What we know:
By secondary structure, the protein is α/β, with parallel strands linked by helices.
Amino acid sequence: MARITAGIATSHVPAxxxxxxxxxxxxxxxxxxxxGYDWVKAFQQxxxxxxxxxxxNDHASAMMLDVxxxxxxxxxxxxxxxxxxxxxxxxxxxxxxxxLAAHLAEQLVIDEFDMTLMNHLDVDHGxxxxxxxxxxxxxQWPVRVIPLAVNxxxxxxxxxxxxxxxxxxxxxxxxxYPANLNVQIWGTGGMSHQLQGPRAGLINPEFDNAxxxxxxxxxxxxxxxxxxxxxxxxGSEGIELIMWLIMRGAMGxxxxxxxxxxxxxxxxxxxxxxxYRPLV
Length: 280
């Protein structure tokens, strides 16, 4: 049967993608950021995952305000990089797994998660930047990817608890899939940052590092965080951290932390990254 072998979380800062694409990764400003992902690139070469379920948020690239799904599952055979206003990123087309995606959709609906099914979806930096950080510059991505787009841009956003429960149900669905697949689940976005208003440029390392501590062995505390608490403590865009809770919920209750990285700043945001191994 399929199995979830690792959970990974990372920020998906668009400027990281630009630095990567323009060959600026060794510049003094960017080198500490990219060095923080050397460990996971070696890890992925050893692990050789077959499929990644990648939780991210669309930044008005494929989903405009006329349709705002809470949870949208990519079911297509392939996903093109989105043009976010300055051309598509020069990265490979993302190849999907429509058979596993259909299985996930069916099982999640049975478990009372009414997913929006996306049979066409262009994917923006929220999805492609994490792929670049994990795999580097490649001719084609070495994994199939099932995008899971989460609404964190328009109120009402899903709660932390709802995201945890979605992750738990994804785990159940993967474990019921009969093919022998090495599956990873990624949560992306965050950490603390705010892009507009009087608090533009906000970074809260104390909150971020407490979040990283609790995510390992006290996730119940994070499941109780309200939207207002995320807004107050981590800025208007810090709500992206609920996607890390989807990943964490899919790990089962007990994990081993294999890698942790935190760096400030990167384009006026905090960058966080973790790798977990499920223990049950």
